[in-house]
Write a structure and sequence with these properties.
globular, 73 residues, disordered N terminus, alpha+beta, DUF1902 domain-containing protein, four-stranded mixed sheet
Length: 73
Amino acid sequence: METVTGARHYEVVAWRADRRLTLYVPGIEASTTVDDPRAAEDAVRDLIADLTGTDRGDITCDIRLGRPWRSGI
């Protein structure tokens, strides 16, 4: 098994749906939702860490508003 060290960077696309903020991470084809936009970055880091096994502190992300099918991703 390969060990990855250092920061892992992910692009995140966010949009409003049903009074929540949907956060989609194309790099791992996964999404989550939050009620409070201030919790978005923590929620995305937790999602990525859970699915990839990467340490939460090694994850960075850029969150931008849009839709994945309209953003060229």
